[in-house]
Amino acid sequence: MDTPIPALYNDCAYTLVSTEQISRTVDRLAAEIQATYENSGRRLVMVVILKGSMPFAADLMKRLTLPIELEFMKVSSYGAGTKSSGEIKVSLDLNRDDLQDIDLLVVEDIIDSGRTLSRLTQLLKNRNAHSVRTCTFLDKPSRREVDFVPDFCGATIPDEFVIGYGLDYNEKYRNLPFVGVLKREIYEKK
Ligand code: PRP
Q: What is the pTM of this model?
């Protein structure tokens, strides 16, 4: 008898990045990051941007053999309604004042307009971190509103409503072990 498909999975139109593809992608990113930092002689702090990047960051850190430290931030951009400012709201911040000797690696699940990472990297550079680099699992370059190119990128994807592997719709679907495209009728029904 076939195993029943959980209702959560049924809301996916199709799989965009399978569990196996995720694993291979994180392997590659970890190797790139390892090569970049292994001879730096400085402390490396991974800054995990909540909530979406949690599963990706957890997978990534386990593949690194560097002695990394872990910090968390929660930020949100003010969105399309306040295009002029492009500001971000920091609701959970780093709480350390030793950044001048540290390499920061900001870890994100997805880049869309680019506003969040553009402002956040600027903010962290202004705090005099030795270096600030960014690693995103997914990138939607077709949605960009400000120039931003991540240092490490898992995959570029088309402009689809993606869920899973940390990505949500109304806080749901973050626990899917793959990245899927949400069925249109789920977010269009009202
Ligand atoms: C998502 C994502 C980035 C941001 C990207 O976070 O994790 O932080 O949006 O969008 P941008 O490039 O247009 O700025 P979200 O606000 O959905 O929060 P979450 O991770 O808690 O779901």
A: 0.94
